[in-house]
Amino acid sequence: MSDKSMNTPVSKDPLPRERVEWWEERCTHYPERRAVLLPLLHDLQEHVGQLTKEAMVWAARFVGITPVEVYGVATFYWMYDLEERAKFRVAVCHNISCALRGKDRILEVIEEETGLKGGHHIQSKGDWSVRTVECMGACSTAPMMEINGRYYEDLSPEKARQVLQDLAAGKEPDSTTPWDTEIRPTTPETLPALPGDRLAWSYKEEQEAERS
Amino acid sequence: MSEAKEIQMTKILVDGVERQAPLGARLIDYLQEIGKVIPHFCYHPGLPVDASCRQCQVESQGKSSKPGLIASCREMIVEGMDILTQSEPVDVARAGVIEFLLKNHPLDCPICDKAGECSLQDNAYETGQDQSRSHEERHHFPKRKDLGEKILLDNERCILCRRCVRFFDHVTGESQLKVFDRGDRSILGTFFDEPLHGNYQGNIVDLCPVGALTLKQFRFKSRPWFLHPTNTICGSCSKGCNTIVEVRDDKILRIRPRYNEAVNGYWMCDEGRLDFDTFNRGIEERRIEEAMVLGEDGNLQRSKTSDAVDALASALRSAKGRHILLLSPWATLEEGEAFHRAVSSLDQNQMLAGFYQPRPSGKGDGLLRTDEDAPNCRGLREMGLTAIDEASLSKVLDENLGSASVFLTGFGLNRLLPDAIKLRIKGAGQVFFHGFGLTSFPFARIALPALSPMEKTGYWVNEDGRKQYIRPALRAPKTIMEDVELYSLLHRSLSHQKDLAGEGAER
Amino acid sequence: MSPAKKASNNYSWPTRDKQPGHETYLFNRVAEKDSHLLDAARKLGAYRVLEESLEKRKPEEVTGLVKDSGLRGRGGAGFPCGFKWTFMPKPEDPRPRYLAVNADESEPGTCKDRVLIREDPHLLIEGILLACYAMQCRGAYIFIRGEYKNEAMVLQKALQDAYEAGLIGKDILGSGFDCDVQLTRGAGAYICGEETALMEAIEGKRGHPRPKPPFPAGFGLWGQPTTVNNIETLCNVPFIVDKGPDWFKSMGTEKSAGNVLAGISGHVKTPGVFEVPLGITMRELIYGEAYGGGILDDKELLAYLPGGSSSGFLPADTLDTPLTHDDLKDQGSMLGTASVIVLNETADIIQATRIITEFYMDESCGQCSQCREGTSWLSEILLRLEQGRGRADDIDTMLDLCVQMKGKTICVLSDAAAWPIELAIKHFRPAFEKAIASSATAVSSTASPAVGSTEGSEEAVR
Question: Which candidate among B34, B224, B458, C144 keeps its CA 20 to 30 Å from the CA of C88?
Answer without folding.
Answer: C144
